[in-house]
Design goal:
It contains 14 helices and 9 strands. The chain is an alpha/beta fold and 322 residues long. Helix 1 packs across helix 4. The longest helix has 19 residues. The chain has a single domain, classed as Alpha-Beta Barrel (TIM Barrel). Strands 1, 2, 3, 4, 5 and 6 form a 6-stranded parallel sheet that branches. The structure holds zinc ion (ZN). Zinc ion (ZN) binds next to loops.
Length: 322
């Protein structure tokens, strides 16, 4: 059994917590449940969870306020035993203690920064360590892949976007290209010298949707020494009936990417609490512990499994964070 650190690089649990707080009746009525609560993460053996701050499109006008409220909810989670990680030192402490679950905060989309980029150091102070530059639509800095299959035709990183990337680099914030369009991705490759990640994206060759990454893009991530986190959303794993998609499809994407890039550039980015359906065998974070035995069956060594389960992402965190 794998004992080294396990990292999931993307969950939308804070959005669900926000909805629970703002609309408790609707939350209860729809029977909404968490995929990645403290207990479920503990059962699944997850040591570090990256929680995204995602502002839904209808709330973008109050995006700064919503983002701050979600950070407040994250701070409240510290009372439940989550430990906010803001530095390499914190990462080491979590690794050594094995007590509590480390949480890393990321922005998914840059709504909170569009009106005033000077807010970036404030969000950094509050704990933001990774930033997904876009979420689907166009923003001041870049353009997303869009929500439909063939909408990836937009512009690359804007002048403001380049300024954002420079500031992120000097603060030590990781660039996340999941949701970014093709031109934007190519610009990130040109502009940054740090490793960057795709926190929750899969292989386009296995599932051709525009949220997934082409072989060329996967190779660019590897040459930058970055990591791709496998997304568990059935529609990004396979074009088969979503009800038939299972944990085995996750293993297929891991195998495909490791065949292409070696074992140093793949990790997990579940998208738990942001997806309406989950694969069979990976219904909640508690099932993450079922991934290593399946990788072992596929012939991955213990060391390879440790890399995939967390040490690859840990490597990037240590490279970019202060
Ligand atoms: Zn997402």
């Amino acid at each position: 059994m794998v004992k080294s650190i396990v990292i999931d690089c993307h969950a939308d649990t804070l959005l669900k917590k926000y909805l629970e707080e703002m609309m408790p009746l609707l939350f209860a009525e729809r029977g909404m449940k968490f995929h990645a609560s403290k207990d479920l993460l503990t059962q699944g053996g997850v040591d570090i969870q990256v929680f995204a701050i995602f502002v839904p499109p209808k709330l973008e006008k109050i995006g700064i306020e919503v983002s701050l409220e979600m950070i407040t909810l994250a701070k409240e989670m510290e009372k439940d035993g989550f430990i906010l990680i803001k530095s390499k030192k914190d990462l080491k402490t979590i690794e050594n203690s094995k007590n509590g679950i480390g949480m890393v905060l990321s922005l998914e989309g840059t709504v909170a920064l569009e009106r005033n980029l000077q807010l970036l150091p404030i969000f950094y102070e509050l704990g933001i360590r990774n930033i997904g530059l876009s979420w689907s639509r166009k923003n001041l800095f870049c353009e997303g892949t869009g929500l439909t299959q063939d909408s990836d035709e937009g512009e690359g990183i804007s002048v403001h976007g380049k300024e954002l990337l420079e500031q992120m680099e000097s603060l030590g914030i990781i660039i996340d290209v999941s949701h970014l369009n093709k031109k934007g991705f190519a610009d990130v490759v040109k502009v940054t010298s740090d490793p960057f990640i795709a926190s929750h994206s899969n292989a386009y060759q296995l599932c051709p949707v525009n949220r997934n990454l082409t072989d060329e893009q996967l190779m660019e991530i590897a040459s930058a020494e970055g990591v791709v986190g496998i997304n568990f959303y059935p529609r990004f794993l396979s074009q088969n009936d979503p009800q038939s998609v299972s944990i085995k499809d996750v293993i297929q994407h891991i195998k495909y990417i490791t065949n292409l890039l070696g074992v140093d550039h793949v990790g997990l980015g579940s998208d738990f609490d942001g997806i309406g359906i989950t694969p069979k065998g990976l219904e909640t974070a508690s099932k993450i512990k079922n991934i290593p035995p399946l990788l072992e069956e596929e012939g991955f060594s213990n060391q390879d499994i440790e890399k995939i389960m967390g040490t690859n992402f840990k490597r990037v965190f240590n490279r970019v964070w202060k």
